[in-house]
Amino acid sequence: MSRDEKKVKPPDACELTPITSVANAEVKLLRSLHQRKYRRKTGWFLAEGMRICIEALQLGYAPIRIVYAAGREAEPGLSTLIAACQKSGGRVLPVTEHLLTRISRKDNAQMVIGAFVQKWTKIDEINACLSSAGCWIALDRVRDPGNLGTILRTADAAAAAGVILIDDCTDPYSVEAVRASMGSVFNVCLAQATAAEFSNFCQIWQGSVIGTALPASIDYRQADWSGPLILLMGNEQAGLSEEMMGLCTQLVRLPMKGRSDSLNLAVATGICLYEMLKV
Ligand code: SAM
Question: Is 145 exposed, middle or buried (0-12, 13-18, 19+ CB in 10 A)?
């Protein structure tokens, strides 16, 4: 090893002094990632738990910060994460268990929390990254992070290509959405568009656009689910806007047999995606 390489060799994780104060600048930075404005400013987000951080690494996301309970360096997986973080120029932060709870803002916090860089696909790149039978899910103003995370998880399970967030949506990189996605946020492409951009995109889109709406007359089981297609889902309260409905090549409904007048957004998305998988 040359003298220069020796100079930049990062410290062994177990040589690091554990951080104990919530006023530490790194702890403050990580805690700020609970707020959208700081996720926007930094382009970072938090993911909790060893399994999810290791999966992220396997999917090509090197952590820029790894925070963990000091003394746990020997736990399986942690040394891999620490090495990957240091190799990519990130920082490794052993902290007290109390501080882990303060960073995750959750009782029974995971022993490991990673900070990662967000990845967004440009809407005009979508045609290029779509396989011929692929499916994108477009969400019109989705507001609930639990719904969005669950949709990401379901999209991943159904091998959908990605999710397009139209207009003012909840952030897929919020801690709540990432938790609900169970790590699928790392494996599903994400794009953002205004209603006007999405409308323009639909003009050049080569596949179909299947919208779901309560007033639709076609039963979802009668629709043509052959791809490529965009599955367009509406807002939790207001449903699909008139403008969005106007973009659909097919508008379908899921039968409501009982007293309830609609399905939960994530449940309706899952039913449609699995109907699509039958084709
Ligand atoms: N009150 C809203 C409405 O009038 O559309 C209900 C919205 S629903 C909770 C959220 C979204 O899930 C809808 O916009 C639609 O995309 C989908 N959805 C839920 N139940 C559905 C059903 N029975 N038929 C078609 N789409 C449904």
Answer: buried
Distance 263 CA to ligand 1 centre (A): 6
- Residue 124: predicted pLDDT: 83
Task: List pLDDT tens digits, range 79-104.
Answer: 999 999 999 999 999 999 999 999 99
Predicted confidence (pLDDT) at residue 235 exceeds the cutoff of 60 = yes
Which residue has its alpha carbon closest to ligand 1 atom 2?
Answer: 239
Instruction: Give the model's pLDDT for residue 259.
Output: 97
Please choose from 142, 167, 212, 222 the residue to mutate so as to test ligand 1's pocket, defined by most ligand atoms within 8 A of CB: 212
The 10s digit of each residue's pLDDT in 103-139 is: 999 888 889 999 999 999 999 888 766 655 689 999 9
Class of residue 34 by CB neighbours under 10 A (exposed 0-12, middle 13-18, buried 19+): middle
Under CATH, domain 3-117 is a member of which superfamily?
A: Ribosomal protein L30/S12 (3.30.1330.30)
Is the distance from CB of 63 to CB of 87 less than 8 angstroms? no
Residues within 6 Å of ligand 1 by CB: 212-214, 233-234, 236, 239-240, 253-254, 256, 262-263, 265, 268
6 pLDDT more than 80: no
Cα–Cα distance between 69 and 71 in angstroms, integer?
A: 6
Cα end-to-end distance, the chain, whole Å: 57
* Residue 57 and residue 51 in contact, taking contact as beta carbons nearer than 8 Å: no
User: Of 143, 262, 199, nearest to 271 (Cα)?
Assistant: 262
Q: Which two tokens stand for residue 23?
A: 């006023």
CATH 3.10.560.10 for the 123-277 domain, yes or no: no
- The ranges assigned to domains in the chain are 3-117, 123-277
In this prediction, residue 5 has a pLDDT band, given cuts at 50, 70 and 90, of very low
